[in-house]
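Annex B.
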Amino acid sequence: MTLNLDRRLLLRAGAFGLAAMSTPGVAQILTARGFTHGVASGEPGPHSVLLWTRYVGSGDTKLRCELSEDETFRKIAGGGDVVASPAHDNCAKLVVNGLAPGKWYNYRFIAPDGSMSDKGRTRTLPVGEVDRFGIGLFSCSNMPFGWFNAYAHAASRDDLDLVVHVGDYFYEYEYGHYPENPMAGRMIEPANETVTLADYRLRFASYRLDPDLRRLHQRFPMIAQWDDHELANDAWKDGAENHQSDKEGPWSIRKAAAEKAYREWMPVSDAVYDSFEIGSLATLFRPETRITARNQQLDFGSVMAGKADVAKALADFRDGPWMAPDRTLMGTRQEAWLHGALAKSAKSGTRWQVLAQQVVMGSLKAPLQMGDLVPADGDPKVRQALMAIAAAARAGLPFNMDSWDGYPAARERLLRAAREADCNLVVLSGDSHNAWGNELAIEGVAAGVEYAGHSVTSPGYETYLPALAPAELAKALRGANPGLAFADTSRRGYVSLDLTPDQVRGQWHFMGTIARHTTQGTISEGLSVKWNERCFAKA
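Alkaline phosphatase: predicted structure tokens.
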């Protein structure tokens, strides 16, 4: 078997035997041959779809791919040959063309010895008028925090046509760091932080053994984009908060390794950003807002450090660096592409312009009483951080500089372009671990809405404010943010959207638990936006 594994892992296996490895899944990664990780599909078009599998042989292995409109594969509708190579961690990807639009297909891969992969199901995008289209939205799945019940719940549905993952598909931290007390049965590999190509590959292999994630990929095509944790926390174009060049080498090498592993293991093309037409119903845009051109995040700590007059320091920061017109998440080239593509979509008569990207776009300021939300006997570090956030709010500043709030000039350019093009803009996002329904505006004029998804497992504000009732926090946040129509800061899950020509209905699905492997107790709350209104419908 050919695998580019970290030397530390091989030493563990040799010294203690495979039985001493942390989970049966790791032994499976090290010893498995043949089809090891199921199948996946992605980036569908009206006549094409990208298909993925992984096959471990004795070297390069030619696989045959088949698509059929029925599960018996009596009539083959398309396919082709593809090589699974150790040079790509034995992953194989193939774009199949010549398919009919708006159709479900079954697919499988066949090895030279006649063995077959799991059967997958995928769908091409429709053309012309479309009455309805369903999308599932996911982000922030940290395996040691709990079970991927959100994936399981979505995988059991028959009303979704496509799933979108806007990042933090896995987390790069070493085992036992985030969380400090991992959940039993949710081991990841490698146990160390992912830094090398071998590390990133093994982390993907570890996650993709999860049966719920595997089932989600098996049943739906996915449009995916990385966020920061597929590389390192709070990444930007030239570095990351969780990267120390003196210990971990040049950022460029780590970034290249992470991107290579991502493109090997995910059902994605090499396009950094792209768009997808869902007939005349919607254009779905998939920009890249994290590492291609993003300027480094601003930091409140450095603004206030050593300043006798904190209010003045924050005001100077607000009027200077924070509002700088050259600060960008996407870069000038990608901004020009997206602004032009939004206008082209709207001008063509397409009903909705759906922007699926990584970080929260709506502006979120902290309540002025934020520092008082921690009990007197609470964590002093949390209180200190909240008091700093409250001071920023008094200066008219938002609290998350890693979101679009840290790049207000870039956000204004985007919303202005959407509004001037007469778009019906629906923004999808993740990253924050919490659920937000934001109304987006430019100079007081409605520009669109945002369904910001909560996490699959990663913790929200309930972790940092355990003594505060989530409903009270949500109420305080809505009071401080007139554009915030919905907030939930304590529950995990995913979002689904039902698109029709006249409205988009989005629902936040909240899992009853992630501590047990079950979808029982799931509840949902939703908001709708009617075409040409650009704000949520009032209850």
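The first helix runs from residue 7 to 16. The longest strand covers residues 34-42. Further annotation is deferred to the next reporting cycle.
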